[in-house]
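Supplementary Methods. Inverse-folding protocol.

Structures were first reduced to a discrete structure-token string of length 195. This string, shown here, constituted the complete conditioning input.
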């Protein structure tokens, strides 16, 4: 009968001998330095926190998004079925289609969800593919830039908005709502923004 290897024997011993984070002890058991223990706990806590923040979505797929600007509502759709609906705030000058950078309008038309930003200044955000070729042509014809960085996002990280329609042209929802949107909506989803 062979004797089982002690923790200080074999491959683990070689790693322990070269690691500043693991120390062999007189009992033959390896001990972690405080630094290693802190790093291990810290990494575990970050992993758990990241998973806890954004649980997986296992429902019907979101196949489209509709924003009704005049009703201040956004709808997440599975074909013709409404999966979720939320109240929204828009740009500070919400009437009409976005014409150029700085006009405070939220675009109108059909775009795509094209990016995610987990480090948004507004909790979380998903990007809208504005401007398209027509938007660029319209702005350049007026001698202006079309703008960009249009997102569906949460509330500001540093303060709560004070009034309705406070964004620079984005679509804003509450933080718990953007957390749902963030996990439910895949990249490439079509979004229709209507007056």
């Amino acid at each position: 009968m062979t004797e089982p290897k002690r923790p200080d024997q074999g491959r683990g011993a070689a790693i322990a001998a070269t690691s500043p984070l693991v120390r062999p002890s007189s009992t033959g058991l390896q001990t972690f330095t405080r630094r290693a223990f802190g790093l291990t706990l810290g990494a575990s806590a970050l992993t758990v926190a990241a998973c806890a923040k954004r649980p997986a979505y296992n429902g019907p797929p979101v196949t489209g998004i509709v924003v009704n600007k005049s009703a201040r509502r956004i709808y997440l759709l599975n074909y013709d079925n409404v999966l979720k609906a939320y109240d929204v705030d828009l740009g500070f000058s919400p009437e009409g289609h976005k014409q150029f950078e700085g006009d405070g309008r939220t675009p109108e038309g059909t775009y795509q969800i094209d990016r995610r930003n987990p480090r948004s200044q507004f909790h979380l955000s998903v990007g809208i593919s504005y401007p398209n070729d027509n938007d660029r042509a319209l702005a350049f014809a007026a001698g202006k830039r079309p703008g960009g960085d249009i997102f569906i996002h949460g509330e500001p990280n540093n303060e709560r908005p004070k009034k309705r329609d406070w964004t620079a042209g984005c679509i804003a929802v509450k933080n718990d709502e953007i957390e749902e949107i963030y996990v439910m909506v895949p990249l490439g989803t079509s979004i229709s923004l209507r007056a």
